[in-house]
Amino acid sequence: TGWFANDADMKGDYFGYDGPCPPWNDSIAHRYVFTVYALDIDRVPVEGKFTGTDVRRAIEGHVLAQASYTGTYALNPKLVK
Fold first, then answer.
1. Are 70 and 29 spatial neighbours (Cβ–Cβ below 8 Å)?
2. Is 12 inside any structural domain?
3. What is the torsional sign of CA 65, 70, 75, 80?
4. What's the number of domains the chain is made of?
5. Domain-located, residue 52
């Protein structure tokens, strides 16, 4: 939401994950890190508008295990190996 705040066509509230979206004309591949958490709670106690930081704070002390996967992506096919 903050990233698009000054763009009238893109501003608004964004909820959930919408996938990787690097700039179409970028000259570098972008790195994306996906992390999954095993928790000792059934539901993360966040309501209404919240951020990733809010979720990470809410799960502190409830993480049993976690794993991360890092991938690269670019819309420019010359950049992706």
1. no
2. no
3. negative
4. 1
5. yes
Q: What is the DSSP string of 12-31?
A: S---S-------TT-SSPEE
* Per-residue pLDDT tens digits for 35-70: 999 999 999 999 988 888 999 999 999 999 999 999
As given in the structure block, the two tokens for residue 38 are: 């095993």
Q: Tell me which residue has tokens 């990787």.
A: 20
Q: Which domain holds residue 46?
A: 30-73
Half-sphere exposure of 12 (CA within 13 A, CB side): 5
Does 8 fall in a domain? no
Return the structure tokens found at 28: 């570098």
Tens digits of residue pLDDT in 66-81: 999 998 888 887 776 6
